[in-house]
Amino acid sequence: MDQQSQCTFGYLTAGQESAAAELVEQTFLQQVARHFSPQGANEFLKNVSPQAVAKRLASGNFMLAAFDSHGLAGILEANAVRGHIVWFFVRPEAQGRGLGRELLKRALAELKRRRPELFRVTVNVSPNSVDAYLSLGFIPSDHQQEKRGVRFTPMTLLLG
To answer: What digits encode the pLDDT tens for the residues 113-127?
Structure first.
């Protein structure tokens, strides 16, 4: 049995906002923050709270989650109106098990269900994650940028 099959996948629901914010904050601090200026790290973390998660869910974004025996293992937030991935985090010890690939597959299906005419999905990728997104089929759509200390490369996935 592969490790991915030991996970369950579904939508993040009311009452899980704290777990989502904690996963994003901890993964960000462990793997991403060092690639940002202190201002950029603070800018990102301003939007990571249970209240911010609840607000974005209420605004129409959806969040898919992967759960393993240790709880929330990964989360992908997307905005169907923009065809944009907002957050895509997998707990460091759960990486390399196919959870991210499965979350992306499910998110793309949901985006297409909500917007059948959608032909591309965009994401702003932190410097440490560019190779991972390339392996998932994304291509850079512009050079690396920095806004309010947050460094990212805009990337696009063309849908078939």
So the answer is: 999 999 999 999 999
Q: What is d(CA 151, CA 112) in angstroms, rounded to the nearest whole number?
A: 28
Rounded CA separation 114/61 (Å):
11
Residues 6+ apart with CB under 8 A from 36: 43, 44, 126, 149, 150, 151
pLDDT digits (tens, 9 = 90+) for 35-55: 999 999 999 999 999 999 999
Domain coverage including residue 64: 4-158
Domain count, the chain: 1
The beta-carbon contacts of 143-151 under 8 Å, at least 24 apart in sequence, are 146/37, 146/40, 148/39, 148/40, 148/43, 149/36, 149/37, 149/38, 149/39, 149/40, 149/41, 149/42, 149/43, 150/36, 150/40, 150/43, 150/44, 151/35, 151/36, 151/37, 151/40, 151/126, 151/127
CATH value at residue 99: 3.40.630.30
In sequence order, the β-bridge partners of residue 128 are none
* Pair of tokens at residue 33: 């923050």
Please list the residues that pair with 157 across neighbouring strands.
121
Residue 5 reports pLDDT greater than 80: no
